[in-house]
UniProtKB/TrEMBL annotation:
Keywords: Acyltransferase, Transferase. Pfam families: HMG_CoA_synt_C, HMG_CoA_synt_N. The keyword Endoplasmic reticulum does not apply. This is Hydroxymethylglutaryl-CoA synthase. It comes from Secundilactobacillus hailunensis. One of its GO terms (molecular function) is hydroxymethylglutaryl-CoA synthase activity. Its EC number is 2.3.3.10.
Length: 387
Protein backbone atom coordinates (compact mmCIF):
# COMPACT_ATOMS: atom_id res chain seq x y z
CA UNK A 1 0.00 0.00 0.00
CA UNK A 2 1.31 3.43 -1.00
CA UNK A 3 0.77 6.43 1.27
CA UNK A 4 1.54 10.05 0.50
CA UNK A 5 0.39 13.42 -0.76
CA UNK A 6 -2.90 13.10 -2.63
CA UNK A 7 -3.69 16.82 -3.09
CA UNK A 8 -1.63 19.99 -2.61
CA UNK A 9 -3.12 23.49 -2.74
CA UNK A 10 -1.82 26.98 -2.02
CA UNK A 11 -3.17 30.40 -1.12
CA UNK A 12 -1.76 33.86 -0.56
CA UNK A 13 -3.41 37.27 -1.01
CA UNK A 14 -3.10 39.03 -4.36
CA UNK A 15 -1.22 42.05 -3.00
CA UNK A 16 2.54 41.98 -3.51
CA UNK A 17 5.68 44.10 -3.48
CA UNK A 18 8.20 44.12 -6.32
CA UNK A 19 11.66 43.78 -4.80
CA UNK A 20 13.19 46.15 -7.33
CA UNK A 21 11.12 48.86 -5.66
CA UNK A 22 12.30 47.67 -2.25
CA UNK A 23 15.93 47.70 -3.41
CA UNK A 24 15.73 51.24 -4.77
CA UNK A 25 14.05 52.52 -1.60
CA UNK A 26 16.59 50.81 0.66
CA UNK A 27 19.54 52.01 -1.47
CA UNK A 28 20.47 48.49 -2.62
CA UNK A 29 21.29 47.10 -6.05
CA UNK A 30 18.25 45.15 -7.36
CA UNK A 31 20.47 42.21 -8.34
CA UNK A 32 21.41 41.79 -4.68
CA UNK A 33 17.82 40.69 -4.18
CA UNK A 34 17.04 39.12 -7.55
CA UNK A 35 20.29 37.13 -7.86
CA UNK A 36 22.05 37.25 -4.49
CA UNK A 37 18.90 36.32 -2.55
CA UNK A 38 17.01 34.75 -5.42
CA UNK A 39 13.75 36.63 -4.92
CA UNK A 40 11.72 38.81 -7.28
CA UNK A 41 8.50 39.61 -5.40
CA UNK A 42 6.92 39.00 -2.01
CA UNK A 43 3.34 38.61 -0.89
CA UNK A 44 2.03 41.34 1.39
CA UNK A 45 -0.50 40.07 3.92
CA UNK A 46 -3.30 42.44 5.02
CA UNK A 47 -4.46 42.64 8.63
CA UNK A 48 -7.69 40.87 7.58
CA UNK A 49 -5.70 37.64 7.01
CA UNK A 50 -4.00 35.47 9.62
CA UNK A 51 -2.74 31.89 9.78
CA UNK A 52 -6.29 30.55 10.11
CA UNK A 53 -7.80 32.40 7.14
CA UNK A 54 -4.77 31.70 4.96
CA UNK A 55 -5.15 28.00 5.76
CA UNK A 56 -8.89 28.01 5.13
CA UNK A 57 -8.49 29.73 1.77
CA UNK A 58 -5.98 27.05 0.72
CA UNK A 59 -7.76 24.05 2.21
CA UNK A 60 -11.18 24.82 0.77
CA UNK A 61 -9.75 23.94 -2.65
CA UNK A 62 -9.13 20.33 -1.62
CA UNK A 63 -11.76 19.64 1.06
CA UNK A 64 -15.24 19.01 -0.26
CA UNK A 65 -18.15 16.57 -0.12
CA UNK A 66 -16.07 13.77 -1.67
CA UNK A 67 -13.51 13.61 1.15
CA UNK A 68 -14.82 15.68 4.07
CA UNK A 69 -16.05 12.66 6.04
CA UNK A 70 -12.79 10.77 5.41
CA UNK A 71 -10.64 13.39 7.16
CA UNK A 72 -9.75 12.11 10.63
CA UNK A 73 -7.18 14.74 11.67
CA UNK A 74 -6.13 18.30 11.00
CA UNK A 75 -2.42 18.82 11.69
CA UNK A 76 -1.65 22.54 11.49
CA UNK A 77 2.03 23.50 11.25
CA UNK A 78 2.66 27.16 12.00
CA UNK A 79 4.91 29.58 13.83
CA UNK A 80 2.30 32.34 13.43
CA UNK A 81 -0.22 30.94 15.88
CA UNK A 82 -3.04 33.18 17.06
CA UNK A 83 -3.54 31.75 20.56
CA UNK A 84 -1.20 30.39 23.24
CA UNK A 85 -3.73 27.69 24.18
CA UNK A 86 -6.26 26.97 21.44
CA UNK A 87 -4.97 25.39 18.24
CA UNK A 88 -5.42 27.04 14.87
CA UNK A 89 -6.64 23.66 13.62
CA UNK A 90 -9.86 23.76 15.63
CA UNK A 91 -10.84 27.10 14.07
CA UNK A 92 -10.18 25.54 10.68
CA UNK A 93 -12.37 22.56 11.52
CA UNK A 94 -15.37 24.85 11.97
CA UNK A 95 -14.69 26.98 8.89
CA UNK A 96 -14.42 23.88 6.67
CA UNK A 97 -17.43 22.14 8.27
CA UNK A 98 -15.35 19.10 9.14
CA UNK A 99 -16.94 16.35 11.28
CA UNK A 100 -16.79 16.43 15.07
CA UNK A 101 -15.08 13.06 15.50
CA UNK A 102 -11.72 14.47 14.46
CA UNK A 103 -8.38 15.47 16.02
CA UNK A 104 -7.31 19.10 15.63
CA UNK A 105 -3.69 19.77 16.57
CA UNK A 106 -1.25 22.67 16.09
CA UNK A 107 2.43 21.77 15.57
CA UNK A 108 5.39 24.08 16.14
CA UNK A 109 9.09 23.83 15.39
CA UNK A 110 9.84 26.88 13.27
CA UNK A 111 9.55 26.06 9.56
CA UNK A 112 9.55 22.30 10.17
CA UNK A 113 5.99 22.07 11.58
CA UNK A 114 4.19 21.03 8.40
CA UNK A 115 6.71 18.24 7.74
CA UNK A 116 6.07 16.88 11.23
CA UNK A 117 2.42 16.84 10.22
CA UNK A 118 3.16 14.97 7.00
CA UNK A 119 5.15 12.31 8.85
CA UNK A 120 2.55 11.88 11.62
CA UNK A 121 -0.17 11.68 8.96
CA UNK A 122 1.79 9.06 7.02
CA UNK A 123 1.94 6.83 10.11
CA UNK A 124 -1.75 7.34 10.90
CA UNK A 125 -2.97 6.49 7.40
CA UNK A 126 -0.84 3.33 7.40
CA UNK A 127 -2.99 2.10 10.30
CA UNK A 128 -6.23 3.62 8.93
CA UNK A 129 -6.04 3.42 5.11
CA UNK A 130 -9.69 4.43 4.69
CA UNK A 131 -8.98 7.83 6.30
CA UNK A 132 -7.24 11.03 5.20
CA UNK A 133 -5.31 13.65 7.16
CA UNK A 134 -5.41 17.35 6.32
CA UNK A 135 -1.95 18.87 6.83
CA UNK A 136 -1.50 22.65 6.87
CA UNK A 137 1.54 24.91 6.68
CA UNK A 138 0.42 28.54 7.17
CA UNK A 139 2.52 31.51 8.21
CA UNK A 140 3.28 35.20 7.85
CA UNK A 141 7.02 35.91 7.73
CA UNK A 142 7.82 39.23 9.40
CA UNK A 143 11.23 40.74 10.17
CA UNK A 144 10.38 44.43 10.22
CA UNK A 145 10.72 47.42 7.92
CA UNK A 146 14.23 48.39 6.84
CA UNK A 147 15.82 45.34 8.47
CA UNK A 148 18.26 42.83 6.89
CA UNK A 149 15.49 40.21 6.80
CA UNK A 150 12.93 42.46 5.13
CA UNK A 151 13.70 41.08 1.68
CA UNK A 152 12.80 37.55 2.85
CA UNK A 153 9.33 38.37 4.16
CA UNK A 154 6.15 36.95 2.65
CA UNK A 155 3.37 34.62 3.68
CA UNK A 156 0.65 32.21 2.67
CA UNK A 157 -0.54 28.67 3.22
CA UNK A 158 -0.27 25.22 1.75
CA UNK A 159 -2.88 22.53 2.38
CA UNK A 160 -2.30 18.85 1.71
CA UNK A 161 -4.33 15.68 2.06
CA UNK A 162 -2.35 12.59 3.04
CA UNK A 163 -4.02 9.38 1.94
CA UNK A 164 -3.53 5.83 0.79
CA UNK A 165 -2.89 5.40 -2.95
CA UNK A 166 -2.18 9.12 -3.46
CA UNK A 167 -2.30 10.83 -6.82
CA UNK A 168 0.73 13.13 -6.43
CA UNK A 169 3.54 11.63 -4.37
CA UNK A 170 4.06 8.19 -2.81
CA UNK A 171 6.20 8.75 0.29
CA UNK A 172 9.05 6.34 0.96
CA UNK A 173 9.20 4.85 4.45
CA UNK A 174 12.82 5.80 5.04
CA UNK A 175 13.61 9.22 6.46
CA UNK A 176 16.58 10.89 8.16
CA UNK A 177 16.29 13.66 10.74
CA UNK A 178 18.42 15.72 13.10
CA UNK A 179 17.70 18.12 15.98
CA UNK A 180 19.94 20.45 17.97
CA UNK A 181 19.31 23.41 20.27
CA UNK A 182 20.69 26.29 18.18
CA UNK A 183 19.90 30.03 18.36
CA UNK A 184 19.95 30.85 14.66
CA UNK A 185 16.35 32.15 14.54
CA UNK A 186 13.71 32.71 17.22
CA UNK A 187 10.72 34.86 18.12
CA UNK A 188 10.00 35.44 21.83
CA UNK A 189 6.35 35.61 22.87
CA UNK A 190 6.52 39.38 23.31
CA UNK A 191 7.66 40.03 19.70
CA UNK A 192 5.70 40.13 16.43
CA UNK A 193 8.90 40.15 14.33
CA UNK A 194 11.47 37.34 14.34
CA UNK A 195 15.10 37.58 15.43
CA UNK A 196 17.67 35.91 13.20
CA UNK A 197 21.41 35.46 12.86
CA UNK A 198 21.28 35.26 9.09
CA UNK A 199 24.73 34.03 8.09
CA UNK A 200 24.85 31.56 10.99
CA UNK A 201 21.41 30.22 10.04
CA UNK A 202 22.53 29.66 6.44
CA UNK A 203 25.52 27.64 7.66
CA UNK A 204 23.37 25.54 9.99
CA UNK A 205 20.90 24.87 7.16
CA UNK A 206 23.68 23.54 4.90
CA UNK A 207 25.26 21.50 7.71
CA UNK A 208 21.93 19.90 8.60
CA UNK A 209 21.20 19.12 4.96
CA UNK A 210 24.52 17.39 4.45
CA UNK A 211 24.10 15.43 7.69
CA UNK A 212 20.61 14.09 6.96
CA UNK A 213 21.46 13.42 3.30
CA UNK A 214 24.38 11.27 4.38
CA UNK A 215 22.23 9.51 7.00
CA UNK A 216 19.53 8.83 4.40
CA UNK A 217 22.06 7.34 1.98
CA UNK A 218 23.43 5.06 4.68
CA UNK A 219 19.93 3.89 5.60
CA UNK A 220 18.72 3.24 2.08
CA UNK A 221 21.76 2.55 -0.08
CA UNK A 222 20.38 5.11 -2.54
CA UNK A 223 22.62 7.65 -4.25
CA UNK A 224 22.07 10.92 -6.05
CA UNK A 225 21.66 8.97 -9.31
CA UNK A 226 18.35 7.61 -7.95
CA UNK A 227 16.78 11.09 -7.91
CA UNK A 228 15.17 13.12 -10.66
CA UNK A 229 14.85 16.30 -8.57
CA UNK A 230 15.16 17.79 -5.10
CA UNK A 231 12.76 20.18 -3.38
CA UNK A 232 14.02 22.36 -0.54
CA UNK A 233 12.68 24.54 2.22
CA UNK A 234 13.16 27.97 0.63
CA UNK A 235 13.19 30.90 3.07
CA UNK A 236 14.76 32.55 0.02
CA UNK A 237 15.44 30.58 -3.11
CA UNK A 238 19.24 31.04 -3.17
CA UNK A 239 19.32 28.99 0.05
CA UNK A 240 18.09 25.86 -1.71
CA UNK A 241 20.55 26.43 -4.54
CA UNK A 242 23.43 26.48 -2.05
CA UNK A 243 22.25 23.19 -0.57
CA UNK A 244 21.91 21.52 -3.96
CA UNK A 245 25.38 22.67 -4.98
CA UNK A 246 26.77 20.98 -1.86
CA UNK A 247 25.92 17.54 -3.30
CA UNK A 248 26.01 18.16 -7.07
CA UNK A 249 29.58 16.78 -7.40
CA UNK A 250 28.10 13.37 -6.53
CA UNK A 251 26.22 13.39 -9.88
CA UNK A 252 27.59 13.04 -13.40
CA UNK A 253 27.50 16.01 -15.77
CA UNK A 254 24.24 14.99 -17.45
CA UNK A 255 22.40 14.56 -14.17
CA UNK A 256 23.81 17.78 -12.79
CA UNK A 257 22.16 19.66 -15.66
CA UNK A 258 18.87 17.84 -15.02
CA UNK A 259 18.94 18.55 -11.29
CA UNK A 260 19.74 22.22 -11.86
CA UNK A 261 16.94 22.58 -14.41
CA UNK A 262 14.47 20.95 -12.03
CA UNK A 263 15.64 23.16 -9.18
CA UNK A 264 14.86 26.22 -11.32
CA UNK A 265 11.39 24.77 -11.89
CA UNK A 266 11.00 24.24 -8.13
CA UNK A 267 11.60 27.89 -7.24
CA UNK A 268 9.39 29.62 -9.82
CA UNK A 269 6.52 30.18 -7.37
CA UNK A 270 8.64 30.88 -4.28
CA UNK A 271 10.52 33.64 -6.13
CA UNK A 272 7.21 35.45 -6.56
CA UNK A 273 5.71 34.85 -3.12
CA UNK A 274 8.55 35.01 -0.61
CA UNK A 275 8.97 33.14 2.65
CA UNK A 276 6.11 30.92 3.82
CA UNK A 277 7.97 29.44 6.80
CA UNK A 278 6.19 26.07 7.30
CA UNK A 279 4.78 26.03 3.77
CA UNK A 280 7.95 26.93 1.85
CA UNK A 281 9.08 23.36 1.07
CA UNK A 282 5.63 22.41 -0.17
CA UNK A 283 5.18 25.47 -2.36
CA UNK A 284 8.53 24.51 -3.87
CA UNK A 285 7.25 20.96 -4.41
CA UNK A 286 4.10 22.36 -6.05
CA UNK A 287 6.28 24.55 -8.28
CA UNK A 288 8.42 21.55 -9.22
CA UNK A 289 5.36 19.52 -10.13
CA UNK A 290 3.88 22.31 -12.25
CA UNK A 291 6.99 23.62 -14.02
CA UNK A 292 9.24 20.60 -14.60
CA UNK A 293 8.81 17.69 -17.00
CA UNK A 294 8.23 14.76 -14.66
CA UNK A 295 6.88 11.23 -15.03
CA UNK A 296 5.18 8.75 -12.70
CA UNK A 297 7.65 6.62 -10.76
CA UNK A 298 10.47 9.18 -10.67
CA UNK A 299 11.93 9.80 -7.21
CA UNK A 300 11.95 13.26 -5.60
CA UNK A 301 14.08 14.19 -2.57
CA UNK A 302 12.73 16.67 -0.03
CA UNK A 303 14.66 18.64 2.59
CA UNK A 304 12.74 20.29 5.41
CA UNK A 305 14.41 22.65 7.86
CA UNK A 306 13.18 24.53 10.90
CA UNK A 307 15.54 26.90 12.66
CA UNK A 308 16.31 26.26 16.27
CA UNK A 309 16.94 23.63 14.76
CA UNK A 310 15.47 20.54 13.11
CA UNK A 311 16.10 19.10 9.66
CA UNK A 312 14.72 16.11 7.79
CA UNK A 313 15.43 14.49 4.45
CA UNK A 314 12.79 12.20 2.99
CA UNK A 315 11.70 11.10 -0.45
CA UNK A 316 8.86 9.88 -2.60
CA UNK A 317 7.96 8.69 -6.07
CA UNK A 318 5.55 10.45 -8.38
CA UNK A 319 2.10 8.85 -8.40
CA UNK A 320 0.45 7.09 -11.31
CA UNK A 321 -2.37 9.68 -11.41
CA UNK A 322 0.00 12.64 -11.40
CA UNK A 323 -1.71 15.57 -13.17
CA UNK A 324 -0.76 19.24 -12.85
CA UNK A 325 -2.84 20.97 -15.52
CA UNK A 326 -5.40 22.49 -13.14
CA UNK A 327 -2.72 23.72 -10.73
CA UNK A 328 -0.63 25.29 -13.49
CA UNK A 329 -3.69 27.16 -14.75
CA UNK A 330 -4.56 28.38 -11.25
CA UNK A 331 -1.09 29.84 -10.72
CA UNK A 332 -1.09 31.43 -14.19
CA UNK A 333 -4.40 33.13 -13.45
CA UNK A 334 -3.32 34.10 -9.93
CA UNK A 335 -0.03 35.74 -10.89
CA UNK A 336 -1.78 37.50 -13.77
CA UNK A 337 -4.36 39.08 -11.45
CA UNK A 338 -2.16 40.31 -8.60
CA UNK A 339 -2.09 43.91 -7.37
CA UNK A 340 1.34 45.51 -7.09
CA UNK A 341 1.70 47.83 -4.11
CA UNK A 342 3.80 50.96 -3.97
CA UNK A 343 6.37 51.21 -1.20
CA UNK A 344 4.09 53.57 0.72
CA UNK A 345 1.16 51.15 0.42
CA UNK A 346 3.34 48.20 1.45
CA UNK A 347 4.68 49.98 4.53
CA UNK A 348 1.17 51.05 5.52
CA UNK A 349 -0.21 47.49 5.21
CA UNK A 350 2.78 46.01 7.02
CA UNK A 351 2.39 48.47 9.91
CA UNK A 352 -1.29 47.69 10.51
CA UNK A 353 -1.65 45.49 13.60
CA UNK A 354 -4.57 44.09 15.52
CA UNK A 355 -5.21 45.83 18.81
CA UNK A 356 -5.19 43.82 22.03
CA UNK A 357 -8.95 43.98 22.34
CA UNK A 358 -12.12 44.58 20.31
CA UNK A 359 -12.01 45.97 16.80
CA UNK A 360 -14.05 45.87 13.58
CA UNK A 361 -11.90 45.65 10.43
CA UNK A 362 -12.51 47.13 7.00
CA UNK A 363 -12.89 44.17 4.59
CA UNK A 364 -13.33 46.18 1.41
CA UNK A 365 -9.73 45.64 0.25
CA UNK A 366 -9.69 41.86 0.81
CA UNK A 367 -11.47 39.69 -1.77
CA UNK A 368 -10.69 36.33 -0.12
CA UNK A 369 -13.45 33.90 0.75
CA UNK A 370 -12.30 33.56 4.38
CA UNK A 371 -11.39 36.77 6.21
CA UNK A 372 -10.78 38.03 9.73
CA UNK A 373 -13.49 40.63 10.34
CA UNK A 374 -12.33 41.75 13.77
CA UNK A 375 -12.17 40.92 17.47
CA UNK A 376 -15.18 40.81 19.79
CA UNK A 377 -14.90 40.03 23.50
CA UNK A 378 -11.25 39.01 22.87
CA UNK A 379 -12.39 36.41 20.31
CA UNK A 380 -11.33 36.54 16.67
CA UNK A 381 -14.28 36.83 14.30
CA UNK A 382 -14.01 34.90 11.03
CA UNK A 383 -16.26 35.30 8.03
CA UNK A 384 -16.91 32.77 5.25
CA UNK A 385 -18.13 34.75 2.27
CA UNK A 386 -18.85 31.54 0.37
CA UNK A 387 -21.87 30.75 2.53
Amino acid sequence: MQIGIDQLAFYTPKTYLDLVDLAHTRNQEPDKYRIGIGQSQQAVIPVTQDAVTLAANAAVKIVNTTNRDQIAMVLFGTESGIDNSKSAAVYLQRLLHLPGNIRTIELKQACYGATAGVQFAHDYVRLHPDKQVLVIGADIARYGLNTPGEVTQGGGAVAMTISAEPRLLNLDNETAFKSEDIMDFWRPLYRTEALVDGRFSENVYIDFFKAVWQDYQQQTGRAIADFTAFAFHLPFTKMGLKALRAILPEADETQQKQLMANFEASRVYNRQVGNLYTGSLYLSLRSLFDNATLKPGQRIGLFSYGSGAEGEFFSGTIGDQFDTQASRQWFTDFFGSRQQLTMAQYERVFSQKLPDHDVLLDLSHDDARFVLSGIKHDQRQYVDRGN
